[in-house]
């Protein structure tokens, strides 16, 4: 049995590019993969969060050991056929850039855990460690708490205890050849924080007509906005400190327009259009305080996306990993968390009596109020890479 553990996290923002053409091609592939994965995984889910980068990079790492039709299916599902072997070079550069980001806390880590009783080809381990900076180690079937415990401890440490118990007890047994792990942790502050005292509860209108009272962040500010009346969606960009990463909110103009927006983004190239043509507008802004988490097995979703033979005990070809046994993918586990808030707590009191001439400030003429279901994207503006995506429906 061959297993993958994929884990990721988001709290909230930053990246760079070496070979610009390869980076752009890789980012476009991740964007397209993200929409396909979203359609397969969250079509009936209300609020959601996932990291397309985490799933895509873990599968790309796995493809180093795939051969024949198995390799072709993975490459096609990831959208990297045109990149070929340069996919791994692009990821090597990308990982280096992610882990040297400034102004925000951003860290992505890969690991490979090997069953010492199997003859894993040294070239595969070398490639995983070289291209993906993976930490290589053996897992211990006799470990206290089970062989999963040290791996879960590693994931928890790399995500600052935000993601725990990723690999369920009983996942690893003597037939498990190896596990591949990816984690991403992101923590950034808004370029302009929301005043905590401006947060208050207001009605959130759900697509089915129900109304829920939710805590919303409020502020009057100038941000980049696009009103796309043709496709019926408004897009707002909330930049993080440093300006490289932003959270984009795609808000349907109709309260029940989320399904139409999801269908639109299933069309090739449409997701990239969301982020084009925004311009500065002073407006009254209101978005919910959001905390979402997900924990899921996504093997069946990946099969629906075309990765079929990799999961077949008879048809899988991972002879680039080992030639001493027939191995296949058993589990693909994905966990994610996102926490969108005012960022920081301010407590102060002051009494000032100051008598001055009145200066009248007119309120903004426009507003962007995310009071009904929307999509969100945590994205690197420099490369176009989507690190996290999801839907919020209250």
UniProtKB/TrEMBL annotation:
Gene3D superfamilies: Alpha-1-antitrypsin, domain 1, Antithrombin, subunit I, domain 2. One of its GO terms (cellular component) is extracellular space. The keyword Membrane does not apply. The keyword Signal applies. One of its GO terms (molecular function) is serine-type endopeptidase inhibitor activity. Residues 35-393 form the Serpin domain. It comes from the Eukaryota. Keywords: Signal. CDD domains: serpin_mollusks. InterPro entries: Serpin_CS (IPR023795), Serpin_dom (IPR023796), Serpin_fam (IPR000215), Serpin_sf (IPR036186), Serpin_sf_1 (IPR042178), Serpin_sf_2 (IPR042185). It holds the Pfam family Serpin. Residues 1-18 form the signal peptide. Belongs to the serpin family. This is Serpin domain-containing protein. The lineage of its organism: Eukaryota, Metazoa, Spiralia, Lophotrochozoa, Mollusca.
């Amino acid at each position: 049995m061959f297993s993958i553990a994929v884990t990721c996290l988001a709290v909230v923002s930053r990246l760079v590019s070496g070979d610009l053409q390869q980076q752009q091609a890789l980012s476009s592939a991740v964007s397209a993969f993200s929409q396909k994965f979203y359609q397969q995984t969250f079509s009936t889910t209300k609020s959601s969060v996932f990291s397309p980068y985490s799933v895509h990079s873990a599968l790309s790492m796995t493809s180093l050991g795939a051969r024949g039709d198995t390799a072709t299916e993975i490459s096609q599902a990831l959208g990297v056929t045109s990149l070929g072997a340069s996919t791994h070079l692009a990821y090597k550069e990308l990982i280096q850039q992610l882990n040297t980001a400034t102004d925000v806390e951003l860290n992505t880590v890969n690991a490979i855990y090997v069953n010492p009783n199997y003859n894993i080809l040294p070239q595969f381990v070398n490639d995983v460690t070289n291209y993906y900076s993976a930490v290589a180690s053996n897992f211990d079937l006799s470990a206290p708490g089970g062989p999963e415990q040290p791996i879960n401890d590693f994931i928890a440490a790399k995500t600052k205890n935000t993601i725990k118990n990723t690999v369920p007890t009983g996942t690893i047994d003597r037939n498990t050849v190896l596990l591949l792990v990816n984690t991403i942790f992101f923590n950034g502050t808004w370029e302009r924080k929301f005043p905590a005292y401006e947060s208050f509860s207001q009605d959130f209108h759900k697509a089915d007509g129900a109304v829920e009272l939710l805590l919303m962040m409020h502020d009057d500010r100038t941000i980049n906005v696009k009103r796309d009346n043709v496709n019926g969606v408004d897009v707002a960009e909330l930049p993080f400190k440093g300006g490289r990463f932003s959270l984009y909110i795609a808000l349907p103009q109709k309260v029940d327009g989320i399904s139409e927006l999801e269908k639109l983004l299933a069309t090739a190239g449409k997701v990239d259009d969301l982020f084009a043509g925004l311009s500065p507008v002073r407006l009254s802004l209101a978005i919910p305080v959001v905390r979402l988490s997900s924990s899921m097995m996504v093997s069946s979703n990946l099969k629906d996306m075309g990765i079929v033979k990799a999961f077949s005990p008879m048809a899988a070809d991972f002879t680039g990993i080992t030639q001493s046994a027939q191995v296949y993918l058993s589990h693909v586990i994905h966990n994610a968390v996102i926490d969108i808030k005012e960022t920081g707590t301010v407590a102060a009191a002051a009494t000032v009596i100051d008598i001055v001439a009145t200066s009248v400030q007119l309120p903004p003429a426009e507003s962007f109020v995310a009071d009904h279901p929307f999509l969100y994207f945590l994205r690197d503006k420099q490369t176009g890479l989507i690190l996290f995506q999801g839907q919020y429906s209250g």
